[in-house]
Automatic annotation (TrEMBL):
GO terms for cellular component: plasma membrane. It is a multi-pass membrane protein. It is found in: Cell membrane. The chain crosses the membrane at residues 151-176, 182-201, 222-244, 256-275, 400-425, 468-486, 498-520. NCBIfam families: PRK06041.1-1. The keyword Transferase does not apply. PANTHER family: FLAGELLA ACCESSORY PROTEIN J (PTHR35402:SF2), INTEGRAL MEMBRANE PROTEIN-RELATED (PTHR35402). InterPro entries: ArlJ-like, T2SS_GspF_dom. Pfam families: T2SSF. Keywords: Cell membrane, Cell projection, Cilium, Flagellum, Membrane, Transmembrane, Transmembrane helix. This is Archaeal flagella assembly protein J. It comes from Archaeoglobus sulfaticallidus PM70-1.
Amino acid sequence: MTEAASGFKLGRLKLFGNIIERLKSLREEMYIDNDLLFILTYMASISTAQINRDKIFEKTSEKVEYAPSKYFKKIKDLAQNWHYDYATACELIARKVKHERLKNLLNRFSNAISAGEPDRDFLEHEWKAFKTIRKDEFERSLESLKKWADAYTALLVSSSLISVIILLSVVIYKAGDPAQTLYFSVFGIFLISLFGVGMLYRSVPKDVKTHNLEVKSREQYLIKKWSPICLVLAALSFTAISVIPTMLNISVFRDYTGLGFVIAGAMILPLGMLGKIDDRKVSDRDEKFAVFIRNLGSIVSGAGVSVVEALSRIDQKNLGELKDPVNILYKRLAMGLDPKICWDRFIGECGSYIIHKLTSIFVDAVNLGGDADIVSEIVSSSNLEMVLLRMKRDLISSGFLGLIIPLHAAMASLVIFITEILTIFTQFIDYLFKTFFAKMGGSTTNVVQNISIGLNLGIFEGLPVELLHQYTFLIILAITISNTLASKIVKGGNNYLLYYYGSILLIISGIVMLVVPPIVNAAFSLPSFMEVGGK
């Protein structure tokens, strides 16, 4: 018995380990797609220093920030420690690589080495070819994203209309348990919305915008510091004001359910604003980095000065958000501090993934004796390519976000409007039967039934009002979650943008839940009927 239990435990641990490894491999594949451009840029840049093949593979294997570097380390070990020739080493490691594009690159490198092609020529050709391939793939992904963004908006409208139709069907046809039907419909609509979100995620270009280093930009540091506090306060306020009163049917707080949405959104709105500011600054730094690195390389190469001296000569009018980090970098280097630490701090404080990947390429290539002008052209070209592709993505995302936010408000208003209409008529019919016909005296059961059938008023009987409010609450919560995820996926960037879009949609949902019911009650109060019922 003990052995069986032990075997079962080991089996679960093994399964859990396999799942973890699979998730790691998926994450690695995503980073390899991005990092192949950076590692080819690095190898093409340092090859301008006319260093030998041993040095190229050695320096490349040390760049642990690039996901493919571990494979180049294995090639270096086979060649330098086990005395394989580089062509054979590349071929052997290529057999072990699962990523198709990296496998093909290593095989081509092996063939080029065997054919005697100079490393610099091969690496420059591969770098240019990969830029073209990546640009084509990115643009095809954008076309797919555009189609799925349109499909998602149609899916959102359809799911909202389905929720209304199901609600009306439950009111008209009393077949089965209405609560069970409505809860299942909420779950189904949420799954439909998540399907749309999943298809957006599959079609979106895999592009990382911010790094995950310990040293961060000021906005990223503040978000990391205040996120736990703001999220806990938002969750507690939302649960206390919206979830508990609605699901436990505490009628005193029912009219203030939307207040929980507004407060929760307001709690995380500062995080969202910081995230939006940081996203804008990172975009500007990425755009200006090409100008900065090209000017730096031109000054170092043309004037024959050190990098520190070149930093002091750069025209800072065109640096934008990169101006302050560059000034701080110059001051640190001029004080004689460790250059590696200074550059690492510069990379961290910029907060950009592209700057994180490309800065060390220029620094290492120049330190190895490479032509600063040529290296800066290579680095700025890779940077500019990615910045221009992101601008195309921003064009699509701006149109999508400009549509999804008002559409969210419209769909939430529609669901609440229909629910409030049904609630008013349910309460009115209940009042009519209990007050007006009760004054007739005697037994009114048959009279009520006959009038209900004749006027078809029985459709509003038997459906609890609190169930309608719970259904509305869950539907709005479901579309708020899915629209937040969809907005972030289409826009791209760091996960802190979820705070920005989530806070906006929560506040909009809350305002709609607070404003629409009083308007509906004022417009459909049926005063004449109430007066008749009161006589």
